[in-house]
Amino acid sequence: MKKLLWIDDEIELLKPYCIFLKEKGYEVECCCSGNDALQILAANHYDIIFLDENMPGMSGLDTLEKITELSPDIPIVMITKNEEENLMEAAIGKRIADYLIKPVNPNQILMTLKKHLHGREIISNQTISSFREEFMKISSSISERLEPEKWFALYRRLTEWNMKLSENDTELFPLIHSLTDEANSFFARFIQNNYIGWMKDPFNRPTTSIDLFRRKIAPMLKENDKILMIVIDNFRYDQWNLIRELIKEDFEINEDRLYFSILPTSTQYARNSLFSGLTPLEIQKKHPEYWVEEGDEETKNQYEKELLELQLKRLRMDVRVFYSKFGNSTSCEQALTEMSKSQAQLSVAVTNFVDMLSHARTDDKVIRELAKNDAAYRTLTKDWFRHSGLVRMMTEMSAKGYKIIITTDHGTTEVSKALKVIGDKNTSVSLRYKVGKSLNFDRKDSKEIFEITKPSEIGLPMPNLSSTYIFATNRNFFAYPNNYNYYVSYYKNTFQHGGISMEEMIIPFVCLESRNKK
Length: 518
Prior knowledge:
The chain is of the alpha/beta class and 518 residues long.
């Protein structure tokens, strides 16, 4: 039974309210002054306090201050006849939970109690009820022949429910998890059935990494817009949803779309294609000096600015570019200083912290505990963004007239099932895809693997004449038979990328504009 303390110098007039609340199952205790309240609170615990603002002797605000010193965690609802703004600000500044204007009616009181004492329970119950209604709709739509836009819509719905159910810690969370797995199985088939065709027909495919700049960003530049393009490596749509909450008061979202990362969903391929507007094979053939092979020791993404400038040249656009890449707040601040001085029409900021977090989670037990599941991984990303310096960069650059774009090269997924694969010593080391000669795997796993025997069909280079690619789908990852058990236990339930899943391939593209500028 929830306990309520009601402090009011006219408490006798409130007896009908007290009787009403007792009938509703609350234990109610009353007192008529701040001094009495403090004595009672010293010896008793209450779940919520109703406090009259206008009392003789110790005022409501003074009583409020004393109560918060004594019991800072108890929600306090101020009840007042006074509607003056400065009084409300003073009360809110002292962190009241709510306030009501006299005269109040019993239903107002009851709704306030439900809001502050039963809010989580009510939200959880309503969420469960809504999800049960939605579950069959989502389940039936998964098996339909969905076009790209419908896949985007389905992924949004699944992401939103995943976040709602994980926040409310309900017994239905495993259900949304299995529903997402089912959707990823159908999504893998969708990609297998369509991806080769997309790569052969660039004019009739949905927007991919290769097309994004030409289709979405170049038109804005042609309108003489100044653009700050922020590329967050390894960034997922659910992580964007949390970051949206941090910036929505300061930035208006003009566009919030999804698009497809190319395969492999890894930085070497997807981000180079994003900046160049070319397939990896085209980069290798047309600009071999800017392509680094899988087995080479060099950094795979050291020529992004050069590739971007080449794309602008192909598009016949005379645009001044500033490019920066950073992984911490200090280098972010340095990039902002240089960016502000450059006065470039297109400023590009690439940050790899989320990717570093993903890899650190694999290797570091502390990080793995902090980011033990999708919900915790999202929260860490949100906390990073809050303190990263990117918000300041966005604010300052938008004040200079820049429109803000936030996007990524690919996402990531949590893997759980190992598939055995055999390759030669030069086979790539990635867990979600492999490229090499003589790749062999158990044919019973073929439904969970997308095999490409002619890499040129999907715009990928061949390190050797007989090289093939294989991509893991769903939550699978590749493991070698040698030392198999150790390998599997080490990488199981880690976040990986390179393969085929909605989380890796369906990624955000967001356009923002400062509300303050308007």
